[in-house]
Specification:
- The structure is a single chain.
- The chain folds into 2 domains: about 160 residues, NAD(P)-binding Rossmann-like Domain (Rossmann fold, 3-Layer(aba) Sandwich), CATH 3.40.50.720; about 130 residues, Orthogonal Bundle (N-(1-d-carboxylethyl)-l-norvaline Dehydrogenase, domain 2).
- A 6-stranded parallel β-sheet has the order 3-2-1-4-5-6.
- Helices cover about 50% and strands about 15% of the residues.
- Helix 1 packs parallel to helix 7 and helix 9 crosses helix 13.
- By secondary structure, it is α/β, with parallel strands linked by helices.
- It starts with a strand and ends in a 5-residue tail after the last helix.
Length: about 300
């Protein structure tokens, strides 16, 4: 069994660490907020107060942090974790969602310092993290993928090698931009149907069996009470937060601009989700299907 340093035990990292412990790995954990480590410690992890202590002797270092700035600040520089490696050659596996360019910078810095780094962002949300059914998309070499895969499997339903460094992040932001657009378009169609006098449940069943069908329509329906397990049926709580979708849309559009790729639907989705976030206090913490409000509000007159 491997010795794993796990840094960032928030909404996603906490349950992911517990799944690694459940498969018998030895975990040394760290989070800025000490209370966040409590569940992992109760499940058998060892806690350290200084992240560099977690890296000593580790086979793998997993990070699950809010953004690229934080990941770079933690790993790079003289006081960073790449520099704290002491003879062992751990593979750094960053599961945070960050810009592909930041992932490539980190991979290049890792090579320069004689350590290894891959990007391995996830899809599947909190439920996927708890149930070990996340989808991992990995950017790195074939050898790095083969080394990481058995560890990642303990947290995953599916593990795919997207390509070289940064490719996991590229795949993640393309997927989430598409999900943002499909959700907004699904809300528009369902809301029009409601206004035309249709039962939304009936319309949802019709569309699910027709060309308008999608994962989000069937599993993440934005109307309360249509899909019992969807965030809409629990007042849009414990889903994929609107603020995180906006973060991912920002990363996708930044990459689109840098690569001269038109992304009009992504840009429109960014506008719509921003409008919703700014129109209601607390909306940023609700599931992104809360965008339904923008359509149900209708137009004046
Ligand atoms: P979170 O804010 O709940 O957790 C992040 C954790 O990192 C917190 O516990 C925080 O205290 C800790 N942290 C921050 N800076 C630190 C530092 N310097 N050293 C140690 N610990 C530090 O976030 P989350 O929802 O778990 O998301 C983590 C990442 O996963 C993000 O990049 C997010 O975009 C991505 N993601 C989230 C979801 C989701 O549904 N929440 C789904 C897929 C991907």
């Amino acid at each position: 069994m491997a010795r794993i340093a796990f840094i960032g035990l928030g909404t996603m990292g906490g349950p992911m660490a517990k799944n690694l412990l459940a498969t018998g790995h030895r975990l040394v954990v760290h989070d800025l907020v000490e209370a966040s480590t409590a569940e992992a410690v109760a499940a058998g992890a060892e806690r350290v107060t200084v992240p560099a202590q977690a890296v000593a002797g580790a086979d793998f270092v997993i990070t699950m942090l809010p953004n690229g700035g934080i990941v770079k600040a933690l790993l790079l520089g003289g006081g960073g974790l790449f520099a704290a490696v002491d003879g062992s050659k751990p593979l750094f596996i960053d599961c945070s969602t960050i810009a592909p360019e930041d992932a490539r910078i980190l991979a290049a810095e890792a090579v320069a310092r004689g350590v290894e780094f891959i990007d391995a962002p996830v899809s599947g949300g909190v439920q996927g993290a708890r149930e070990a059914t996340l989808a991992f998309m990995v950017g790195g070499t074939d050898e790095q993928f083969s080394r990481a895969e058995p560890i990642i499997r303990a947290m995953a339903r599916i593990v795919l090698h997207a390509g070289p460094a940064g490719s996991g992040q590229s795949a993640k932001i393309c997927n989430n931009m598409l999900a943002a657009v499909i959700m907004a378009a699904t809300c528009e169609a369902l809301s029009l149907g409601e206004r035309l006098g249709l039962e939304v449940e009936t319309l949802s069943r019709i569309m699910a069996g027709s060309s308008g069908s999608s994962f989000l329509l069937e599993r993440w329906n934005p109307y309360p009470g249509i899909v019992a397990a969807a965030p809409a049926s629990r007042d849009y709580d414990n889903g994929f937060q609107l603020q995180l979708m906006l973060k991912d849309l920002g990363l996708a559009l930044e990459s689109a601009r840098a690569s001269h790729q038109p992304a009009p639907f992504g840009a429109l989705a960014q506008n719509l989700y921003t409008l919703k976030q700014q129109s209601e206090a607390g909306a940023r913490l609700k599931d992104f299907s809360k965008i339904i409000d923008v359509f149900r509000a209708g137009l004046p007159g």
